[in-house]
Amino acid sequence: MYSRREGPLSHSVRMFRRVVVVSQRSKNAIRKLSSNAHNRLLDIRERVGPHNIVKLVHVANIFGLVGICQDDMLVLRSMLFMATGTGLVFNFMQLKPAIVPIGWSALFMGLHLYQIVDILQDRNTNINLSLREELLYCKAFLPYGFSPRSFKQLKERANLGWKTYKKGDVIVEQGSKVEETYFVTNGSLRILYQNSCINKVHSDSECGHWVGKVWIEEKEEDGMTWDVSVVADSDVTAVKIDVQVFREIIREDPKRILAADKLQLRELWSRLDSMKHAQHENKTKTIQKVTALQKRQEDETRSAYYNMLELALVDGIITEPEEHILSEFRRRNHITQQTHDELIRLFK
To answer: What pTM does this model have?
Structure first.
C-alpha cells in the first residue's frame, strides 16, 4: 500500500523504478555470468585446440541420429536434449558467440527438459496399489498406454467397486441409464437383445474384458441408455467404474485420449471376434443337428427296409411283385445296391 503523503501515481512511478533497477542488476549479473562462462570455455578451447572443437558438431549429430532411431519417447527426448546442449556449447565456444543459435538452443533444451520431466512423472511406478488394483491396471489399462499416474487419478476420483455376480444375475439391463462401465476380470457373460442371446463373452484370469462403450470422444448426453442386457453365464467378478468421471479424466490429457482410442478399437475388434466365434459355434451346432437327423433317418430307413426284406423272405424267395415293391422303396429312399446286398447276407 502507498502512504497517505503520496498518491497512486507517485507510488506506481516508485515501484516502476525499483523494477527497472532490479532488472538492470539481473541483466548485469547474467552478462557477468555469461562472460565468465565464455572465458572459461575459451580457455578450454585453447587447451583442446580450435581444430578439435569442430568435433562437437559430429557429437551433436550422433546424439540426434541415435535419438531419432529410438521408439522410446524418453530416450528420444534425452538424446535430442544432449544434441541441442552440445550444439549450444559449440556455438558458445566460438571467439564471437553466436547469440541467436544459442538462444534457440536454450529454448529447445528447456522444452525437451519439460517433456522429459513429464514423461518421468507419467512413468512413476511408485504408487501404492493393492494386489487386485495392480492386476486391474496391468490387464485393463497398461496394454493400451495408460500411465500409472492416470490410473492413480482414476482410482482416487472414480468409484472403483469390485463385485461378484452369480450365474443368472443381471449385470446390465437393457434400457437402463448408463452410469457405470464394467471390466470383467473373470467369468462368462451372455449378451441379450430383447431377451435373445446375440453373443457370449468369456474372460479368464489372464486377460479380462470390458463391457459397454468405454470411451467416445464426443460428449455424451445424460440420457444415454444400455441397448443390450448383460447376464452372468457363470460366477463373474467385475469392477464397476463411474463412466462420467472416467471420461472426464481421459479428456484431460491428449495421451489418455490416444490410449482410450486404442482401448475402444481393441474392444470393438474383440467383440467382432467373439460374435464371429458365436456364429461359428451356432453354425457348427446346426450342422451337427442336421447330420444327426440325417443319420437317424438313414437308420430308420435301413431298419424299415430290413423289415420289408424279412417279410419277403419268409417263404425263402422274393417274388416278382415283392421285388418291384422293394426296388421302388430303394429308389425313393436312396438305398444303394451295396446296402441291399449287405442286408440280404444277414438272412443267409
So the answer is: 0.49
